[in-house]
Amino acid sequence: MFVVDAAGTVIHASDEFAAHLGADAAALRGRPLSDFVGDGDWPDVRGTLDAVRRASGWESRRCRCRLSAGDDGPAVGDAPAEIDIELEFASYRGGDGGGYGDGDGDRFDSDSDANRVVGAVCREPSEPTTARLHTERDRFDHLFDLIDDAVIEFEIVGIEPVVRAVNPGFESVFGYDADEVRGESLNDFIVPPDADDEAVDFDQRTADGKANHAIVTRQTAWGRREFLYRGIPYSRGDGKQYGFSIYSDITSQRRAREHLQVLQRVLRHNLRNEMNVVLGMAEEIREATADSHVDHAAARIAAHTETLLRVSEKARTAAAVLDDQRPDEVVDATETVRAVVEPRRTRFPAATFDLDLPPSLPVSVGPKLAQALANVVENALEHTPEDVTVRIEAKRCENDATLRVSDDGDGIPEIEWAAVFGDEDITQLSHGSGLGLWVVKWVVESAGGRVDYDRRNGWSTVQLTLPLADGSR
Question: Does the pTM of the predicted model rise above 0.90?
Answer without folding.
Answer: no
